[in-house]
Amino acid sequence: MGGLEKKKYERGSATNYITRNKARKKLQLSLADFRRLCILKGIYPHEPKHKKKVNKGSTAARTFYLLKDIKFLLHEPIVNKFRDYKVFVRKLRKAYGKSEWNTVERLKDNKPSYKLDHIIKERYPTFIDALRDLDDALSMCFLFATFPRTGKCHVQTIQLCRRLTVEFLNYIIASRSLRKVFLSIKGIYYQAEVLGQPITWIAPYAFAHDHPTDVDYRVMATFTEFYTTLLGFVNFRLYQSLNLHYPPKIEGQAEAEWKLEEGQTYAMDSESYMEKLSALSASLARVVAPNPEDEVQVDEFPVDGETAEQEVARKKEQEAVEKQKKLFEGLRFFLNREVPREPIAFIIRCFGGSVSWDKSVCIGATYDVRDPTITHQIVDRPSLEKQVIGRYYLQPQWVFDSVNAKMCLPVADYFPGVLLPPHLSPFVSEKDGDYIPPEKLKLLALQRGENPAEESGDEEEEDSGGDDDDEGSEKEDDGKLKKLEEQRSQGKKLPVKVSAGTVRLEDKQRAAQEEQSEEKRLAIMMMKKREKYLYQKIMFGKKRKVREATRLAEKRKAHDAATKSEKKTKKVRRE
Amino acid sequence: MAAPTGAPGGAAASGFLGLRAESRDPGAPGRRRARGGRSRKKSWKRWAGPEARLGRELGAFLEDVGLQQRAAGGLVAEKPDESLFFLDTGSEEKDQKLNRGKEKPLRIDLILQPDSKVPAPKDILAHQVPNGKTQKRKQRLWEKLAERDVVPREQRLLQARLQKAQLATAEASHGQQGAHGQGAGAELAGGFYDIWSDTNPLDRPLAGQDAWFLEQTKKRRVRRPARLETKPSELPAVEVIPAGGSYNPMFESHQALLLQAHEVEVRRQKAEEKLQRQLRFPTAAEAPTQETTFQEQCEGLLEESADEGGEEEAPDEPPAPGATPPPAPLHEKKTEQQRRREKEAKFLEARRLGEKAARCRRQELFQLRSIRLQVKRREAELLRRRRARLAKRRAEATKPRRLGRLKYEDPDLEVQLSTELAESLRTLKPEGSILRDRFKSLQKRNLIEPRERAKFKRKYRLKYVEKRAFREVTL
Description:
A: alpha/beta, 4-stranded parallel β-sheet, 3-stranded antiparallel β-sheet, 21 helices, B: mainly alpha
């Protein structure tokens, strides 16, 4: 054959990928800078399909990037800034070494810095794109905001994160978009719905840090740097969408007023303002005062391809959401000092309640413990010496559970010192056929508006309750009919004697059922072998699920019985 | 061109009259200056300079004198007026009559006269300023920019200098007070803008400009490839802990989580046990005895000697001296007849095969049903494969990939034992670290490659020296 000899690794996948080191050299950056650049630009390593081909015959595990991605990086103006910074550091070190303080000063004044605005715009061309990627940003900012200022990362970063998270929380409060809360052993999970996008984030408990050693702080700081920029832009836009002032302003009080009120002793002006904001107790000022008449009912258009049922369901859901938003409206809470203030205050304010705390706990308390209008006091200690009549004393879990249940739960289970019902995860949703724990069943019953007091404990009864009613009514009907018949027959005494025939009870439902099952059986018989196999597999899976559910239910029953008996024995012993 | 205007003055001064338009008085001062410097070779060659000009003018003068002598028989200036002029005594009417035929335009000129109704195109260049369009556009652009308070660079630089000076004076007058008081407030208030609006400052310099221009002058950034929009993993950014991880969990879900953690632990323990088993010191029964150690020591030796014996035997047999090389396969030449027969046989065979294939093809018509079955089977098989492929791809979409030397390892499950569970929120002891959780999540979603901390390696050994003062302390 003619032509040139084809050389290996000069075409195909070998030319589509580039190793990390080569990419680094191509960009003339150090590894740390390269890593930073990749994180900022959203360029991630790739695993090639045929490693041996890409790696020129070697099978060593390497980090590969797509060559096209690296070529894209070459156009980035920030690369130059990184190089400038490298030079700056070199010059600075030299000046320090020579003790030329004037030069040091001059260099520090002209420190090269870069902005990430254009990268944000490039990576998130629309606002919705940015919202979709907000989970990461929020989690990271909430995490960094709680870091101690010990030099693990820049103090400015921590402060910035704190400011941004507080701004975001204030927006959530103003828009009332919180949906779910989950207290886990790791931290608190929140879910909000912002402009139709579900946004989930995790916030750590206060003071819960041991700095792990196996985490690369530099990488995390780079991610945070990017995410703080993103969150700043998102916050601004969100505030605009609600007509709120963007550097947020507290409603009502003029600046001079709270300055006077607090006096100069508390903190610097800027700091105390931030603290006030982060107290989350006051609402924000709007650019244009909201006018209730302005809120015109929006015309509703049916979505294409939506059946009437779906529409009804959607409307129902919307109503539920609207109702949930006003969950704590009109209620006045007071938080005791042992209660985690920030999350609870945030949640209560998110659902329209007003909240206060002791003045010495935090700035921004709006009323005192002795205020007679307080309806709920959140307490987390076994017993209280002095209790005021006219308010409920509740454990903090009541707030979280009520939010998840979308209704104010009965308070009896949450009195101080009472053993709490379990805190269920709102992020778990059971499909039909799954095992539903009795606690959840109880909750569902509550939501449906049934009285839990009657059916406390016995869920099986409750389940079959509906069916029983139907059957009972049918029986009654039958009885009535018989009576009528008898009356008639008694009224007209005919000479003809008719021997009583055995009534052939034709159960229509049952007949229909039988017919259905017969059809099904026939259909199964007609199935092809492969389909039949698949069908049997599915059915087996379903049965297994049911079996497991019943097994779990029995286990639970046994457990309950055991605990009950234990309690009884304890009681007996005590007596 | 300029000569006629300048001529009267010159002629009056020296009394010389030029016959031709370009003829000049040599005594008149030169109006044109020598072009360019005289240090260049070009200027030497061109016969330029004052002498050259003088020579040229002299030449022209002499030529003119010659011409006047030839035409008028002497210098025109010296002739009497009568020889030069005469009195016109004729009447105009007569002349017109005489010249009637001469004044009539020639027919050929009439023919050549344009008779088109469409006017001739205008000479556009006469009305146009060269490069006027660009200049006009530029001017318009500056006007527009001026409306938005954008001024040319020179002006901007000047303004910046002015402002700088002003600022410096202002700061000097304020002292440290102003800087201290504003602090974070100024930082808060300044420079917020909506990046997703149509009029964000990022796009403003490029707004309203020609796309082609922007592209060619590299003013516009390179567009982000669509490939980068997809995330490397389909896992959610925040994975919510299972229900058993609640601070006050339900019995069943807590048990389920415990079971999961237990399984992980059992697996780990098994691996460890396996390692221990393999590295264990052998028991007394398995321990090597003297015999086995001896055997092990002469493991290779015995066999080797046996091999050597064999080899010794082999060289005894010397190669046979007169052995002929193996006979090469015989290839006798085929006869003509053989060739012909082979050819015929080949031809026949080909025809037979062709006929058979045609027959089979014809027969396939009657096998339609079975063929259809085959096709169906094949299609079903393909469908099955496609489904399997899709399922595999879906399963792999959420898996962490191998992105470097190290493999991704799942972090430990956060779980609290039944005895560790908190009674209330106040007594809750958080488990695990969110920082590690976030970091591992980034690794799991293929955003960063798993790494281990760089190990610190000391280049030189430490040297311990006891200070003398310390050494002298005796207890």
